[in-house]
Amino acid sequence: MDLDAVTKQSALHAKPDGLTLQYGTAGFRTKAEHLDHVMFRMGLLAVLRSKQTKSTIGVMVTASHNPEEDNGVKLVDPLGEMLAPSWEDHATCLANAEEQDLPRVLVDIGEKAAVNLHQDAFVVIGRDTRPSSEKLSQSVIDGVTVLGGQFHDYGLLTTPQLHYMVYCRNTSGQYGKATIEGYYQKLSAAFVELTKQASCSGDDQRTLKVDCANGIGALKLREMKHYFSQGLSVQLFNDGTKGKLNHLCGADFVKSHQKPPQGIEMKSHERCCSFDGDADRIVYYYHDADGQFHLVDGDKIAALISSFLKEPLLEIGDSLSLGVVQTAYANGSSTRYLEEVMKVPVYCTKTGVKHLHHKAQEFDIGVYFEANGHGTVLFSKAAEMKIKQLAKELEEDKKRKAAKMLENVIDLFNQATGDAISDMLVIEAILALKGLTVQQWDALYTDLPNRQLKVKVADRQVISTTDAERQAVTPPGLQEAINELVKKYRLSRAFVRPSGTEDIVRVYAEADSQENADSLAYEVSLAVFQLAGGIGERPQPVNITRNLEL
Ligand code: 16G
Ligand code: MG
Hints:
Catalyzes the conversion of GlcNAc-6-P into GlcNAc-1-P during the synthesis of uridine diphosphate/UDP-GlcNAc, a sugar nucleotide critical to multiple glycosylation pathways including protein N- and O-glycosylation. Pathway: Nucleotide-sugar biosynthesis; UDP-N-acetyl-alpha-D-glucosamine biosynthesis; N-acetyl-alpha-D-glucosamine 1-phosphate from alpha-D-glucosamine 6-phosphate (route I): step 2/2. The chain is α/β, with parallel strands linked by helices and 550 residues long. The protein has four domains: 3-156, Alpha-D-Glucose-1,6-Bisphosphate, subunit A, domain 3 (Alpha-D-Glucose-1,6-Bisphosphate, Chain A, domain 3); 182-296, Alpha-D-Glucose-1,6-Bisphosphate, Chain A, domain 3 (3-Layer(aba) Sandwich), CATH 3.40.120; 298-416, 3-Layer(aba) Sandwich (Alpha-D-Glucose-1,6-Bisphosphate, Chain A, domain 3), CATH 3.40.120; 450-532, Alpha-D-phosphohexomutase, C-terminal domain (TATA-Binding Protein, 2-Layer Sandwich). Helix content is 42%, strand content 18%. The protein is built from 20 helices and 19 strands. The strands form five sheets. A five-stranded mixed beta sheet has the order 1-3-2-4-5, sandwiched between helices. The longest helix has 19 residues, at 298-316. The structure holds 2-acetamido-2-deoxy-6-O-phosphono-alpha-D-glucopyranose and magnesium ion.
């Protein structure tokens, strides 16, 4: 390492004094103007990680669903996965080192992680459409270059597309071609193949309105839609030509406000969906004949996909294990439906894609979705090989067809990470094959009324949790208080957890009616305020303050 060169270059990307940031649930995220040094340093870190793993590493510049003024960065590990936890710690140390300590911290990381500095390094970079992203990705490149790393800058990409590129490059192209056309072709071919078997169900069925959050999803979907236009026609809204990124639109807005985004015309019973700002989340929704809004969230996506997969799996007669992974935010009705009606095992992990992804890898076929719309289906290598073999060998027509269908499903899911575009195509294929309307899909089960609130406390780390965030361990007495409150309502459940992305505590409650869910959420918020060092205004009942904010 040429540490003198690092010091010199770093001075051009100097860290503001006293600023400390954490590599959080999905990387660093804050106001764009505070991120230049972080980007440069993540370029440095990506080179070390690449040398250590002898693989291509990805760096994505995005702040997902955050406001346009924010930005962020995350590193992508060799198989398209989130950065390993020990390297998250290195990332935090490196980002927070004062200028004069930077060379020492770099050397330290190299030693701790046993990095062979003579190894070559290759880094791929992608960015979203934020005005700040281009300059910040140049800072990443400066970091990569000063440590002698090679790079390829893909420019504008969705986050899942960057994960895909990393995965392709580290599997010598076996997974697909590491180009944007390669991505479009792979997914579209699988979609067209899968939907061939659908009986034609009229124009209406095959049109989908997509709210692109005024983000990168719009650019990429506009390019891609020609590849699958025979099977599906998508109409883009909030395509970035007018509105502001994530402002009053996008998956996060729709999920948290439980209402349609601005900028989309919805007629009753029309199928609509929203992406988030970097297109790794998707939720569906529609208006019924009475104009009432219905959200079809990540839990229902998981239910649709798992029930669809069960049939061909049964048909091929192979005992491949299927498991569904959720978080504590999964609606109680969805868990009950999956376990009791679908008879599939359901597991709960902590919030954050990396936790779900990790658990899903334990199954031959792991379906994972957060209620907020992050998710995908992972097929183990063994399951994939088995299915591909059966698709070739099986004599009986029906069985071979089932295996072929599964083969297309494997190709259609972005196996590297949750992907709004890939998930959208899978959902559209399933609806077409099953001849389901969005209402029929929504009617798989009825969501329990629920409410989310946030509480400000002096130090949110005083709350620690266990049992996949469903139980509070500290502060003392908090879980007991929650237990007592939950007992007062029917079909109720509540939990609290410190947010990984904001300086607040999140409260979730569900119950048999909206009124009861609101009331339970309020009471739990009060308990948090009293027992966990609340600051500012005391929580108010939901119906008085109309506090529908999350
Ligand atoms: C991040 C996570 C998301 C999680 C959310 C929770 C990734 C790619 N994203 O956006 O999965 O649901 O954080 O935020 O892992 P919270 O901790 O503030 O509730
Ligand atoms: Mg996102």
